[in-house]
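Page 42, continued from yesterday. The earlier attempt failed because a stray header line got pasted into the input along with the sequence. Redoing it now with the clean sequence only.
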Amino acid sequence: MILKQFKELQEFLSKPQKVVIIGHKNPDGDAIGSTLGLKHYLDKKGHKTQVLMPNEYPEFLHWIPGSETVYRFDRQNNQCVKALRKSTLGFLLDFNALHRVGSDMQNTLEKYENDFALIDHHQQPDDFTYMYSDTSMSSTCQMVYNFIEMMGDLDLIDENIATCLYTGIMTDTGSFRFRSTTSTTHRIIADLIDKGAENDKIHSNVNDSNTYSRLLLLGQALTNLEILPEYKTAFITLTEAEKQRYNYEKGDTEGIVNYALSLKGIVFGVIFIEDEEQGIVKISFRSKGTFSVNQFARNYFDGGGHDNAAGGRSELSLQDTVAKFKSLLPEYKNELVSSYEV
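This time it went through. Structure tokens are written below.
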């Protein structure tokens, strides 16, 4: 764990500040939950806050309390830049380096004249003035809960904060089934429920929002599933044409990679998604046991994340990206075979 200049940050926040709270590009439940959860907390402390996101996030997260106040850098550039200029502190949540916000927003943040405070659980973070980094944590939302506790303010957690933090913990732990889910995580979840998080409604809002076209897209993805039993690996591909055929919207591919990992005997699951707009192939990696997809993504696909969940990208064609991926597996055969007793 890295805890850098916490007392100084605590002192800085003892007086009202103008704070921007920033999440990563293509924000997920943990990014939205942690930024809005921190916003609601800081608002109660008398600070003026504004959440900034690089781009849109899935519709199934739009119900989260405070979502309507978020500025998007790709659509509300002037408002975002103005908020940054007026602010006295910038929080960076759920990402470990400025490039995770995308090049346009990164260029703006690199000119920021005040200090950044990082709260994040991804590996190998960049250095910032204030830092709370812990790769053992299940989620950034769990870390925001801990941050509020370290500030001595658990009594300030209300229904809105609890709902935001519960959502992020739930989504980043795969509904509490990943190895990062500890007994401490469950104790925090229990406290959030006590403080007003309605777990049944949160699960329903996130998981029961399928459209007919999204289910058809899932069917296409499962049709494209390929298994490599000798490497205990399964992967899924989705072309741009397949996405458009089923009226793809942001968030429609969320969680599909877990179907590959759910197969009996599989320890390495991957999805390759063609993104014509960005000219890349987006990749999600998942693993069981000791095989580090974080290191694999860093080594070969310009990515990273956690030991058992990471993302990456490729500027090759979809076909060439998959061919590259397959060519790497023999080198990791022993690690994959011994990664986990399935």
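Notes: The chain has two domains: 2-207, 212-337.
Reminder to self: strip header lines before submitting.
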